[in-house]
Amino acid sequence: MSTHGRHGYRYVGPEELRAAVRPGTAGRAVRSAADLDAWVAERGAEELAEPFTFVVDAEGTLRLGARRSEHVACAGGGRVLSAGEIGFTGAPGRWVAAEVSNQSTGYCPDPGSWPAVAGALERAGLTAPPGFTHEVVFRRCEECGERGIVRDGDFSCVFCGGALPATWNVDPRPWPDGA
């Protein structure tokens, strides 16, 4: 069974960051343009200059966190269908996701997680680009166990020089039944 297919992605980052997550502190659910209007009004329009942290939670809802906040906190410690950074342009009631990446070293989502992001944006009435505007390819080195980013198509581990696999393998733990 795929470790990220229908179940999403489990947090694979530092345990101390997950341990710091408190119940009820997940990122703001964005289910409509009005939700995004409220989020921007609370934060201030100047924060639109930089992308926000986002996750698509296990139910398919877009959740936003402040820039540079931890994805695991935005997800309330749970699984996600995707995670990364998202930047919006537009005006109240008419928002466009102008830049979207899967840059999350805590969840390391595969670029194949885009449909979850597109679906969450569509359900919220927000315009999405045709795909991630910046794709990150994460892999775990099977020789040294380190997580890394594939750059310029070079599937070599920057830590030990080992070959990185062609397919996503970041979460080495099998999913428990029913998880």
Automatic annotation (TrEMBL):
Top-level taxon in the UniProt lineage: Bacteria
Name of this protein: Uncharacterized protein
